[in-house]
Amino acid sequence: MIDSSPMYGRAEEVIGELAAKLGLRDSLFLATKVWTHGKQSGIDSMERSLGRLRTKTIDLMQVHNLVDVATQLATMREWKERGRIRYIGITHYEAGAFGDVARILASEKLDFVQINYSIAEREAEEKILPLAQQRGVAVIANRPFGGGDLFSRVRGKPLPDFAKDFECASWAQFFLKWIVASTAVTCAIPATNNVHHLEDNMRGGIGRLPDGKTRARMVEVVSAL
Q1: Residue 173 region, left (φ>0) first, then alpha (ψ -120 to 50), else beta?
Q2: Are residues 48 and 34 in contact, defined by beta-carbon separation less than 8 angstroms?
Q3: What's the predicted TM-score (pTM) here?
Q4: How many distinct helices (H) and strands (E) make up the chain?
Q5: How far apart are CA 113 and CA 162, in angstroms?
Q6: Cβ(199)–Cβ(213) under 8 Å?
Q7: Is the pLDDT of residue 148 over 90?
């Protein structure tokens, strides 16, 4: 799963080029966003994304930060019916917007919701995650490292001994396994421009995951730092 956006520089263009050259399109779940006001502006943005990603179908189109959400969702539903989009969703990265996210989750038929969720930012557990489960909406967790703040808290500190019980070899894997072990979360999207960090992050989705009791223990460890 690759989560991109027209706002991320040349990301869509680079992803499209690499996927085409390497023949990877069928192996990828491509997610991107629309972040603009007005129906035609939204259409133009999504058309550009299709072109840059070199695909006829976007797996997931999301209204970024709820900007003109009603207008963009209406267009996205039309595109979904026509087969140009497989799934639709909304995004935000601040807990302060969870009230609006919850309102839209409760009133609109969505496939995905993307919100900030990490072992240090657990506000989504109060309402968003239960509501998403109730509504059958998949959850993408952004800011899985708390915007990077978590690494400053654990720098120079060893992993707890029980991390080996769920095949965890780094703090990045520790934070990611805590997230994806939640029954409400579909996937996490750590961002990096370092290939070694990318490889480390990917291992957070491999092997055993912590159970509920272990997740609570993990929270205690991080809270004590």
Answers
A1: alpha
A2: no
A3: 0.95
A4: 9, 7
A5: 32
A6: no
A7: no
